[in-house]
């Protein structure tokens, strides 16, 4: 982020060998409001972590406090909501529920277990992570997690093992969308200014995803054993 006179910014960007991104409105917050907002957010996280109240209640309460205390104007509340993501998740949640209620997740899980019969458990966890990464490269990562989470739970139940490492492999895989510019907003943000092409992403992203699978699988099994 750069701040300065408009006529000097272009020269400074060129001298620093930086690539300018799209201009956006950024307001410098008042320190007292920023500290108050951080305190409210920390309290909401603490209440959720300690299971005092559900996460939905604690964070909704934090937003209401922001609005009524004047930290967040109501017009900014609506303006800053990413509505396409909300609509996508609203559509994917019923799909995830339908997969479970129709028995599709159990069917898919049983097929995966039968196809990987005889393979070590760590390889199945790695496979789930890879599949989740591939899905996350073409659809929203939260939507990917909604689809893959019940399937991974079904696989764990079919194998009779702890489901935690399977769910963590989904969480890690859904967060690693490096192969396409549409996998994450940050990928798309640098596409134009950087002069990148679609194929440039997998050249760097593929080795990175391989490293994550190779390092993440044993770490998941270490912290969340079967």
Automatic annotation (TrEMBL):
Membrane-related topology note: Multi-pass membrane protein
Signal peptide range: none
Statement: the UniProt record of this protein carries the keyword Transmembrane: yes
Subcellular location: Membrane
Major location category of this protein: membrane
Record keywords, A-Z: Membrane, Repeat, Transmembrane, Transmembrane helix, Transport
InterPro entries the UniProt entry points to: Cit_transptr-like_dom (IPR004680), DASS-Related_Transporters (IPR051679)
Pfam families, per the entry: CitMHS
GO terms under biological process: transmembrane transport
Membrane-spanning intervals of the chain: 36-69, 81-99, 119-135, 142-161, 167-192, 204-224
Domain Citrate transporter-like: residue ranges: 33-173
Keyword Transit peptide (UniProt): no
One GO CC term on file: plasma membrane
Name recorded for this polypeptide: Sulfate permease, Trk-type
């Amino acid at each position: 982020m750069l701040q300065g006179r408009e006529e000097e910014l272009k020269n400074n960007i060129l001298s620093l060998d930086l690539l300018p991104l799209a201009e956006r409105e950024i307001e410098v917050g008042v320190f007292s409001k920023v500290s108050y907002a951080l305190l409210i957010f920390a309290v909401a996280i603490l209440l959720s972590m300690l299971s005092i109240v559900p996460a939905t209640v604690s964070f909704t309460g934090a937003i209401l406090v922001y609005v009524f205390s004047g930290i967040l104007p109501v017009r900014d509340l609506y303006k800053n909501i990413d509505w396409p993501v909300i609509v996508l998740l609203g559509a994917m949640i019923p799909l995830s529920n339908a997969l479970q209620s129709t028995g599709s997740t159990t069917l898919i899980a049983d097929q995966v277990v039968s196809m990987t019969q005889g393979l070590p458990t760590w390889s199945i966890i790695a496979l789930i992570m890879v599949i989740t990464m591939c899905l996350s490269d073409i659809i929203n990562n939260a939507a990917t997690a909604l689809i893959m989470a019940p399937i991974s739970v079904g696989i764990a139940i079919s194998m009779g093992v702890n489901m935690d490492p399977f769910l963590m492999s989904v969480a890690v895989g859904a967060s690693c969308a490096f192969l396409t510019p549409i996998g994450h907003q940050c990928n798309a943000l640098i596409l134009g200014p950087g002069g990148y092409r679609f194929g440039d992403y997998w050249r760097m992203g593929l080795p990175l995803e391989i490293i994550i699978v190779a390092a993440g699988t044993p770490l998941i099994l270490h912290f969340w054993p079967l």
